[in-house]
Amino acid sequence: MANQLLENAIVVTGAGRRVGHHIALRLHQDGYEVIAHYRTLTPEIQVLANLGIKTLQADLSNSQQILAFVATLKICCKQFRGVIHNASSFESTSDNIEVAVEQYKQFFNIHMMAPFLINQSLQSVLVGEDGAPADIIHITDINVENPTPDFDIYGSTKAGLHNMTLALAKKFGPEIKVNEVAPGPVLFMETHSDQVREDILAETLLGIEGGPEPVYLAVKSLLMNPFITGSSIPVDGGRRLSKR
Ligand SMILES: NC(=O)c1ccc[n+]([C@@H]2O[C@H](COP(=O)([O-])OP(=O)(O)OC[C@H]3O[C@@H](n4cnc5c(N)ncnc54)[C@H](OP(=O)(O)O)[C@@H]3O)[C@@H](O)[C@H]2O)c1
Fold it and tell me: Ligand 1 mean position to 2 CA, how many Å?
């Protein structure tokens, strides 16, 4: 499998854990050819590799590694059914300005530069099935519309990705649809305290942590729908309406 030329694969970035891993696994279970990108080699990546899924490593905060990743993608797959940009770095903005400068560079590269370079480089080989358009799906965040001030670098770079959804939908149609899935509280981080979890759920209309499957269902609905582009699906239990 390792050296086999793939066809019509869907690339999932950040598939080494949590939501990205779930999306890659579920796409495979639903019969899609998948290429799973990761930065850190994890047991979850080993699970995907054991299923015969092609796995590729790259640090997407580094533009040289992004371009090398794209070159490798093109070697191992003739044409692509879609790309799902899930990789992300999530942390609050540092009070130390020098650290914040580094955060900005890193978040900009992961959330904006990597999707831009990958999308631009794969445009000519993104081909849909049976005459339908191919898919680019950006995983953003409800913070794009209603930011959390302590996370302003994270949020503003995700907002850049939101704007890129709109720009590329105009640029890449009619051959490629470009959409976005904007999660709310689907999986808490280990670092979230009980109090923070309680506060978040208190302002989530459906009152639960959603889990990764609703994100996958939104991704799949976009893949299956030939007439949606430049759109965003919030998967947030309604939190965007009540978040302070
Ligand atoms: N979880 C939520 O409730 C929630 C809420 C709103 C939005 N979202 C969005 O949903 C998506 C998935 O969320 P998640 O909670 O599963 O994210 P996560 O746990 O933070 O995982 C992010 C993934 O991105 C990868 N990544 C980070 N930095 C990278 C880099 N420099 N180069 C390449 N890959 C890198 C990570 O790999 P490593 O293992 O190497 O770090 C990891 O696989 C993200 O886009 C996130 O912004 C999630």
Answer: 25
